[in-house]
Amino acid sequence: MRNDTPYTPSTAYPFGFLDAYAKREIRRSILKAVALPGYQVPYASREMPMGRGFGTGALQLTLSVVGPDDTLKVIDQGSDDSVNAVNLRRFIRKTCPGIQTTTLTEAATVLQSRHRIPEKPLTEEQICILQVPYPDPLVYVEPTEEKRRTMHGEADYARLWVKLYEDMREFDEITISHRYPTRINGHYVLDPSPIPRYDVPKLNRSRALILFGAGREKKIYAVPPFTKAEPLTFEDVPFRTETFVDADGNRLACRRCGATDSFLDEFTTDTGEKVFQCSDSDYCLSRSQGPASAIYTEARHDA
Amino acid sequence: MAYVAIQGGQRAIEEAARLSEYLRTEQGIEGRPVSLDDIKYQLRGLHSRILSEGGLYHPDLAALAIKQSMGDPLEASFALRAYRSTRPRRMETAAHDTSRMRLVRRISAAFKDIPGGQMLGATPDYSLRLLRFDLMDESPEAFQEIAGTWMENLNADDVPDTFPKVLDLLMEEGLLASSDNDGSEEAFDITRQPMIFPVPRSAALQSMARGETGSLLMIAYSNMRGYGDVHPTVGEVRVGYLPVELPHPVTGTPVEIGEVLMTECEVVAMYEGGDDAQAQPRFTVGYGACFGHNEVKAIAMAILDRALQKGMQDGAANPSEDPEFVLLHIDGIDSMGFCTHYKMPHYVTFQSDMDRLRTTQSKKERDL
Questions:
Q1: How far apart are the C-alpha atoms of B293 and B296, rounded to whole Å?
Q2: CA distance A85 to A78
Q3: Residue B149's pLDDT band (boundaries 50, 70, 90)?
Q4: With an 8 Å Cβ cutoff, is A27 touching chain B?
Q5: For the segment B163-174, what is each residue's pLDDT rounded down to a tens digit?
Q6: Which backbone phi and psi does A251 adopt, to 5 degrees?
Q7: Residue B366's closest chain A neighbor by CA?
Q8: Rounded to a whole number, what is the distance in Å from the CA of B190 to chain A's nearest CA?
């Protein structure tokens, strides 16, 4: 069969890439997710033109909620300029004409992130959308989704508690490093996406709406604003975030901006020296360069 | 400052794309861009596979996807599938009767002779897989000559328009249960509804129809080798062009809008007893169908359909009978995407992993 219609980018792709029915379905699923905090809402995830696992779930949420008057920030590992963040931002700019992008956390209305929640506190004017590889914390203990759904419905998290207990028996420490199971509003336990434990407390009574999109696993869930989010732990075993201290127990500082209150990335330099730097590049640049970092933002990404 | 991750991502991506574009055109003045028709006609196997795994019957765009991905099947299906996300679903076809297929090939392994006859068609099944060195430097004249003279002594009127289905014979004899599905049941749509297990058979068939060939083959092969007991006989494999009808937007009458090349396979499997004691035992059936000419895929799918039906009825005794295991792991777009994503930075999570390991190590040290 021949089809002689010419394909040009403008005729080939609608605003936000997805067709309007898909965006409507996703927005409805978001509403359901907000109404049932922590509940994984199944939805008919669409294929996006980047790989499953690169943030296609969060991307579908972003494309469904942004309009031409929104300002968007995209980060990966805390950085606006890591290759995946750049790629996602470019795609969104291309398919959402009129949208503004920024690296300044406080200037964004919609933030899409992989593996971090920004250091600067978010506000009720913002939506933070996290990329999720594994939406279900019960996957640690139960491979079958059909059974997991029943366990969630009954708030039966006994096997997760046992896993934590076994950790304490074997290592005297809970060994879950990231994706720390977190109970929302006293019922559903969710997988907060691979954010470090450092970011888990930011979910608790967050002013911003936090949405989670798992494209490959076809689930959407949410922590609505001002909702209780408690990491699972025992009464006598406090939940502990990552520590950044030197051999003497002093808090390490970012070598760039000097911050001692941020999540740090660890590097080994060419000379073999171990150094630390803020994982959140906007936080770091705002501290070291002040508002000038905003110029870096627009100019670079409009290029 | 030799620096990681904070700047330079954008430029790196652009340069990587430019380099890929150079590789695509590396032949320079010796080269000639491959045309979409070259791909459709000369890379038929690949083209069929992309139509099927991309889940969108658009021969031109499938060829374009192959061209831009430089022949990588997963990447090409991916591009086609992603394009699909931009198109609304406006209408649904009714169930189609595949006996109306304009066949290019149909065989049965169950009967020596079948009404309408075995039609071997174009198949490599009985060819010797010897390299044809004469094709290494094929002249355009020799190439054009073959098709130019092919139809000379053939009479198109000799070929009937339709062929009866082999399985109908078995049904008439009562060896196979007549289908209780008259096609009126509404099909699940995996592109518009999430699969929540247990899922209906129509969802399973759709997932497999656009599944990745190698993945379907691997799981079906495990069943054939002994991790399962379908023991299939190929009742019929047919390949051909199926006229597609849509309801007319005003009158509602079915109107032919075109045709799709597709492969269909029905396997007959070991018999089972009826639901009640009075019922006669009968053979069971597995069904496979996909866009394009992909016989291995259609047969593997038919075997898995049978295995999954058994699993849903009696409980899964092995991976190929487990609907979650099979249906969630056969999609090429999902699996290749997730595999590829491991190449992305995982600095934060790895930092977090190190924190846990160092903490447990230091506790152990203290205890010793």
A1: 9
A2: 9
A3: confident
A4: no
A5: 888 888 888 888
A6: -65, 130
A7: A172
A8: 7
Domain residue spans in chain B? 12-84, 100-124+156-337
Identify residue A7 by its one-letter amino acid code: Y
Verify whether residue A254 is a known catalytic residue: yes
Q: Is the CB of A178 less than 8 angstroms away from the CB of B353? A: yes
List of residues 6+ apart from A97 with CB closer than 8 A: A15, A68
Contact A44 B190 (CB under 8 A): yes
Element (H, E) at B208: helix B201-209
Domains of chain A, earliest start first: 9-231 (3.40.50.11310)
What are the chain A neighbours of B364 within 8 Å (beta carbons)? 171
Tokens representing B296 are 């291995």
**Residue A96 among the catalytic residues:** no
Strands B102-107 and B233-247: antiparallel
φ, ψ for residue A291 (rounded to 5)?
A: -60, -15
Q: Are A263 and A77 in contact (CB under 8 A)?
A: no
Closest-CA residue to A215 (of A63, A49, A60, A29): A60
Out of A271-280, B74-83, B257-266, which region has the weakest mean confidence (pLDDT)?
A271-280
| Whole-number average pLDDT of chain A | 90
Q: Is the pLDDT of residue B3 over 50?
A: no
Structure tokens given for B314: 């009696």
Nearest CA in chain B to A14: B86
* Residue tagged 């304009």 (tokens): B102
Is the distance from CB of A215 to CB of A48 less than 8 angstroms? Answer: yes
Identify all chain B residues contacting A300, using CB atoms and an 8 Å cutoff. 10
pLDDT in tens, A53-77: 889 999 999 999 999 999 999 999 9
The tens digit of pLDDT for each residue in B121-135 reads 899 888 889 999 999
Q: How far apart are CA B15 and CA A86, in angstroms?
A: 13
CB contact under 8 A, B194 and A133: no
Amino acid at site B260: V
E strand map for chain B: 102-107, 233-247, 254-272, 282-291
How much is the pTM?
0.85
Q: Which position among A51, A96, A284, A290 bears the catalytic label?
A: A284
Residue-wise pLDDT for A107-164, tens only, equals: 999 999 999 999 999 999 999 999 999 999 999 899 899 999 999 999 999 999 999 9
pLDDT at res. B280: 77
Tell me if chain B has a CB within 8 Å of the CB of A45.
yes
